[in-house]
Amino acid sequence: MEELHSETPKAEPEPSPKVIGLTGGIGSGKTTVARFIEEFGFPVYYSDDRAKSIVNDSEDLKIRIKELLGEDAYDKNGLYDRKFVAGKVFNNKDLLQQLNEIIHPAVRIDFEEWVKKQTKYLVFKETALLFELKLNRQCYKSLLVTAEDNIRIKRVMDRDGKTYREVEAVMEKQMPEKDKIRLADCIIYNNTNLEDLKEQTEKIIFSIE
């Protein structure tokens, strides 16, 4: 009689977390919303912060950025000089695009490795350039934090000590809010106070299925 062998059922792989792209223009309150999201127990990947680390830690990126922008892209201590770089690319779209093509693939790989370590069903990728770089196409949903222009300008003036015109010049370089609103899956309007902002954040993130 043929002996029957029972096979141990294979464990189902853990489902990958759903990635929510979190974005907002200067003075929108995007970072504050990100902190609320963390308070509610969900992990947030801060793209800009990680990019700051990567451009300082990767010798390959250092070489390529210096080739593009010159030795002054890094200071005498070998650290990325954000002020110098910002001055070089602020009015030069081609140079900015070339810089992004160096940095953003490295950030994408870093993010993918970060996601693998997460255990929550939702993870949030905070990035100012979600729509500009079409990163929203790689996300399950996009979440935009927005506010009226005059409110955003005042916030940045108070926070950074910049003039009205300086803030306005930065905003003019960013994608118009109306275009972001059209592209976003979920929107938080940060025009009132922190309590309202937190309530909106909680309502939206816990409604995502």
UniProtKB/TrEMBL annotation:
<comment type="pathway">
    <text>Cofactor biosynthesis; coenzyme A biosynthesis; CoA from (R)-pantothenate: step 5/5.</text>
</comment>
<keyword id="KW-0173">Coenzyme A biosynthesis</keyword>
<keyword id="KW-0808">Transferase</keyword>
<feature type="region of interest" description="Disordered">
    <location>
        <begin position="1"/>
        <end position="20"/>
    </location>
</feature>
<dbReference type="GO" id="GO:0005737">
    <property type="term" value="C:cytoplasm"/>
</dbReference>
<keyword id="KW-0547">Nucleotide-binding</keyword>
<feature type="compositionally biased region" description="Basic and acidic residues">
    <location>
        <begin position="1"/>
        <end position="15"/>
    </location>
</feature>
<keyword id="KW-0418">Kinase</keyword>
<dbReference type="GO" id="GO:0015937">
    <property type="term" value="P:coenzyme A biosynthetic process"/>
</dbReference>
<comment type="similarity">
    <text>Belongs to the CoaE family.</text>
</comment>
<keyword id="KW-0963">Cytoplasm</keyword>
<dbReference type="Pfam" id="PF01121">
    <property type="entry name" value="CoaE"/>
</dbReference>
<dbReference type="InterPro" id="IPR001977">
    <property type="entry name" value="Depp_CoAkinase"/>
</dbReference>
<keyword id="KW-0067">ATP-binding</keyword>
<dbReference type="GO" id="GO:0004140">
    <property type="term" value="F:dephospho-CoA kinase activity"/>
</dbReference>
<dbReference type="GO" id="GO:0005524">
    <property type="term" value="F:ATP binding"/>
</dbReference>
<comment type="function">
    <text>Catalyzes the phosphorylation of the 3'-hydroxyl group of dephosphocoenzyme A to form coenzyme A.</text>
</comment>
<protein>
    <recommendedName>
        <fullName>Dephospho-CoA kinase</fullName>
        <ecNumber>2.7.1.24</ecNumber>
    </recommendedName>
</protein>
<dbReference type="InterPro" id="IPR027417">
    <property type="entry name" value="P-loop_NTPase"/>
</dbReference>
<feature type="binding site">
    <location>
        <begin position="27"/>
        <end position="32"/>
    </location>
    <ligand>
        <name>ATP</name>
    </ligand>
</feature>
